[in-house]
Amino acid sequence: MMNAPALPASAADYIAHIDLAFELMAVLDASGRIVRVNAAAGDILGYTPAELAGRPVLELLHPDERADLAALGAEVLQGHACQERELRWRRKDGQPVYLSLSACWSERAGLVYASARDVTAHRAAREELKLSRERLNAMLESIGDAFFAIDRDWRIIYANRKAAAFIGVAVGPNVGRPLLDVSPELEGTPFIAHYRQALADGQPGFFEAFWEPSGTWLEVRCYPTPDGLSVYFHDITAKRTALDAVHKSEKRFRSLFQQAGDSIVIADHDLRIVAANGRACASFGYTEAEFVGLPVTRIDGHHTYTPGMLASLRAGHTHLLRMTKRRKDGSRFPAEVHVSRFEDGGQEYFQAIVRDLTEREEAERQLRASEQRFREVIEMTPAGYVLAGADGRVLDVNPALCSLSGHAREALLGRTLDDLFDTFPWHGLAAHDAQEHVQGVEASLRHAQGGHVHVLFNGSVRRDAAGNVTSVTGLMSDITGRKQAETRLQQLATHDTLTGLPNRALLHERVQHMLDACPQGRAVAVMFLDLDRFKEVNDSFGHDLGDVLLCEVATRLRKVMRPGDVIARLGGDEFVVAAECAGPADAGAIAQKLLDALGLPVRVGGQDVNAGGSIGISLFPHDASTRELLFQTADTAMYGAKRAGRNRYRFFEPAMTLAAQARMALEMALRPALARSEFELHYQPRVDLRTMRVVGLEALLRWNSADLGRVSPGEFIGIAEETGLIVPIGRWVLEEACGQTRRLIERQGRAIRVSVNVSARQLAQAGFVDEVRDVLARTGLPAACLELELTESALIEDMARTAAMLDELRVLGVKLAVDDFGTGYSGLAYLRRLPIDILKLDRSFVLQDDGRISAFDFVKAFVDMAHALRLSVVAEGVETADVLEFLRAADCDEVQGYLMARPMPLDALEAWLDAATEG
Ligand SMILES: Nc1nc2c(ncn2[C@@H]2O[C@H](COP(=O)(O)O[C@H]3[C@@H](O)[C@H](n4cnc5c(=O)[nH]c(N)nc54)O[C@@H]3COP(=O)(O)O)[C@@H](O)[C@H]2O)c(=O)[nH]1
């Protein structure tokens, strides 16, 4: 035992007073050495107070706790009291003991007063409780159901994880919070109502409810506890769903039973009806109540359930019967009845599903009637009908198809559609890709006699569920006539009706094709061909014979050209030939062949005519790279050929385009010429060949263009005629010539006749005679002093109309002359029909001498003929005295030409006339 330090009196008193206490009480010095302990130390630590006196208190402590106590001691010495600090001590027998220590420092005594309570048992109980709680929690966590507990203030005491899932938030951090704050969705739900009830009654509650937020059905048990309420949830969603399914299934079955399209009647072992659905009630006329208890024989027309059938049903067979059923009112209806047997709750039942066949039998009857009608229609229809199977073999045909194909029905049945048709919309019947329906498709049917019949085919393919063709039906009408008409129409639309040659549209198509297909290094030659003398032939012999000439030309062109070449007629006497070739040399050779063919005389109206032709050639790609340009350049080249003297071919040259442009410029300048007073008249005297006196003048137009200078009539008259400008210009010439001549007559004091050229366009004007009459009236020129020169072609264009017009002019007193006579082919007949006075013999006529007959004989015969017809003859273009003598000898009446005088302005003419008179 250690020596304890001496205690101050107050400390000794303290120990003396507490010796009897159950708690251990001790006095320690500042170094932690025990000064004195009470007797309880023996019970608590196993040491007598004497054994403990003088020992450092740390020695009594479990080694693990010594550091804590040292720290605690330091705090106490600083004046901080220690309250109820649990520390592990070691008893004298080595057993651990837990003491709850309180201590304080007495400054005055310089001592520590300590007390310690044995809490070993209390601590063990606490540990046990903790373990027990943990076990409980583990159990609650493992039970798979949700659980939570609340106190009477609805604060959460505990909740397992499942419950957290149910509440929707982690519960751990929310323990202690009001349940409704944590899960506000609970407000107003049956859950809360039940919890309140259980808390109020103190009675456990049990209910099922649907928890919206998680979409689950829950079975809930709540148990009131002294603290509050414990709540268990069990998820019964699966059970509820299964139950719902059963309910729904039952409902469905009931609904099916009630709403079945067929009547369903259930009879018991004694064949008394126990149930009937709505349809049965409606069909048989009984209410459901009336049905129940009725023997099944009451609704059977003639058939009862025989023992044999019942035995068979009991053996598990079902029966499908066709029978008559009887309604409540005694009426009957045909029915198909499916009878079966079943057991329910150990009872035997028979079920009959009754299908009313009234409608079906009516439909079948109607179908038969319809089939009959269909057959009649098919037999009578003029359209051919064919039905074929999936293999394309013919199963049925009607008489119309027999007659269309020329085969008997028996010969057609069994043949394939591919045999029957040459072209057929479903050739080979490719099962899946064949269209369902075809409408208005053209097909070609083979005829028994050979050849084809064009038909318009409408048809449809039937298929099974897998999409395979099961049959083909077709109706067809004969369109051979229509096809022929179409072909004819097509021919008319693309060919020239007169010659049968391709027209402009087809020419464009074919040439374009040639250009597209033209191999590299090769060329396509396009030749525009214009007959040189077609107009004359037409004018002279009439249109019918002109047509004969055109047809002959077409025939010759066909003969010359190869099959792949294109020959077309654009209209009038314009032909186009196109051929693929190596280049210019080939093209030239082709053109020459064409000219040779056209150069041979053609027999027209009993005469040999030499039509001749001018050809313009343009080569693709050399001259033009497009069809349009090719045609344009070939056309230009053709005009070049014509200008060059006809009966020849010319290749396109860029300069030709310049010529065409020049012509265009001329036309543009000509249009305003009249308004700009750019015209004047020159006059050329006409002399009587016997007296050599001037008897007339020819008025000849002259144009002094402000832009182009003097332009000869040979250049612009043709353009004026083509453009129609000749009509106003001609009107001006007539007016001017008449006016000037009247004044000239006045000045000369003698009658002089002026001859004015009238073009075909002017003559074609409806008011031409009136115009002449008005001009004569306005200018005061006597009608006998006016002579109109008309060309042969203008005269014969519309002979009847021209004759009437000339008659009117003759009545006026105007003289009529035929200009350039002898250059056309008009023949002489028109001279008898028309009131002509004068024939103007063309200059070429006088010069022509072909060796067979001399020019003189020719002109002499001509003059004699004219005289026989009481016509005067004027010879034009007399340039030499020889020709003058020649004409005199031929008995010609008048002459005109440079020999006598050139055309001259009016003032010059007057001077010339004066001089001639004087001379
Ligand atoms: N519709 C109209 N046509 C007219 C009019 N004025 C003229 N023309 C026609 O133009 C063509 C050319 O006429 P032009 O250049 O005036 O030539 C005429 C004479 O100059 C020419 N001529 C006269 N004598 C001779 C001659 O000895 N040798 C020769 N080489 N030429 C000669 O002949 C032309 C007259 O021809 P024609 O009319 O056939 O008598 C010409 O066709 C004119 O008709 C007009 O106002 N309206």
UniProtKB/TrEMBL annotation:
SMART domains listed in its UniProt record: EAL, GGDEF, PAC, PAS
Sequence ranges assigned to domain GGDEF in this UniProt record: 522-654
UniProt domain PAC: residue ranges: 317-369, 439-491
UniProt entry keywords in alphabetical sequence: Coiled coil
SUPFAM superfamilies attached to this UniProt entry: EAL domain-like, Nucleotide cyclase, PYP-like sensor domain (PAS domain)
Domain PAS: 10-80, 132-180, 249-293, 370-424
Domain of life: Bacteria
Residue ranges annotated for the EAL domain, each copy included: 663-917
Stretches of the chain forming a coiled coil according to its record: 353-380
Entries under InterPro entries matching the protein: Biofilm_reg_signaling (IPR052155), EAL_dom (IPR001633), EAL_sf (IPR035919), GGDEF_dom (IPR000160), Nucleotide_cyclase (IPR029787), PAC (IPR001610), PAS (IPR000014), PAS-assoc_C (IPR000700)
Name of the protein in question: EAL domain-containing protein
